[in-house]
Amino acid sequence: MSGVDDAALVLRHEEGALVLAGDPARYGKPLRIDFAEGRAAHRRRFGGGRGQLIARACGLAAGVTPSVVDATAGLGRDAFVLASLGAEVLLVERVAQIHALLEDGLARAARDADTAEIAARMHLAHGDATRELAALVAASDIAPQVVHLDPMFPHREKSALVKKEMRLFRELAGDDDDAPRLLEAALDVATHRVVVKRPRKAPPIAGPAPQHVIEGKTSRYDLYVHRSLKS
After folding, report:
1. How far apart (Å, rounded) are the C-alpha atoms in residues 224 and 48?
2. Which residue, 89, 97, 172, 148, is CA-closest to 124?
3. How far apart are CA 107 and CA 226, in angstroms?
4. Average pLDDT, whole number, for the chain?
5. CA distance 167 to 158
6. How far is residue 150 from each of residues 29, 76, 97, 193, measured CA to CA in Å?
7. pLDDT by residue (tens digit) across 182-230?
8. 182, 72 Cβ separation under 8 angstroms
9. Reported confidence tier of residue 157, pLDDT bands at 50, 70, 90
10. 59 near 79, Cβ under 8 Å?
11. What is the pLDDT of residue 37?
């Protein structure tokens, strides 16, 4: 966790949704999670289906829809994509404020006709995956065929991560200095593969080398494969 002053960030309700708000000059608009509208809705309709990088990396293919543990849930966008494609997903989030936003976003998605079925495949847990992943998975109904990781990468000032929304998120979550331990925990839990999202030119997480890499324009997925996913 970073040294952010929690008093500077406040959870409150606005227009029927829970939001996390701070100084607008520093953080911009209050942060809310909305799976039914905005960016999530656009990606659900036009994102490219199972041809998307994350879907390919997690092994979603014709006749193959693995269960996924998103051990770094964040704002839930990757988990929502996977659930919209039919996967059962366990979202693990360690930051209490972000977990609260996810809980609220999922509750609203469950009440929306367009997203209710997707939200029913998204199961939320609060905990630190570096230390509690096995216990959190055991307490759920999700068989962890695939574990997806998107650890926070130390940023440069020119990075897109200085956008106000991500500045707020980063100050709460901090950098994932324990990413090697997180990878180790994921490898212990996943029955088939671990998928790690990285900036395209960043080094892999310290530890075993990935067996496969899927590259996009700005990011890539490092794959650590135990066994093949089959229909």
Report:
1. 24
2. 89
3. 35
4. 87
5. 13
6. 24, 11, 18, 14
7. 999 999 999 999 999 999 999 999 999 999 999 999 999 999 999 999 8
8. yes
9. very low
10. no
11. 80
Question: Which residue do the tokens 């929690």 mark?
Answer: 6
Residue 150 annotated as part of some ligand binding site: yes
Across the beta sheet with 219-225, what order do the strands follow?
A: 122-126, 89-93, 68-70, 146-149, 193-199, 219-225, 212-215
Average pLDDT for 59-67: 94
Query: Residue 20 pLDDT more than 80?
Result: yes
78 among the known binding-site residues? yes
Q: Which two tokens stand for residue 190?
A: 């996943």
Helix axes of 164-173 and 96-110: crossing angle, nearest 10 degrees: 120
Answer whether 74's CB lies under 8 Å from 81's CB: no
Which CATH number applies to 33-225? Answer: 3.40.50.150
In this prediction, residue 23 carries a pLDDT of 86
Partners of 122 in the β-ladder: 89
Residue 31 token pair = 């942060």
Q: How many residues does the chain have?
A: 231
| pLDDT value at 155 more than 60 | no
Domain layout of the chain by residue ranges: 33-225
Spatial neighbors of 213 by CB under 8 A, at least 6 apart, are 220, 221, 222, 223
Residue 94 annotated in ligand binding: yes
Structure tokens at 44: 């659900």
Per-residue model confidence (pLDDT) at position 49: 81
pLDDT of residue 45: 62
Model pTM score: 0.88
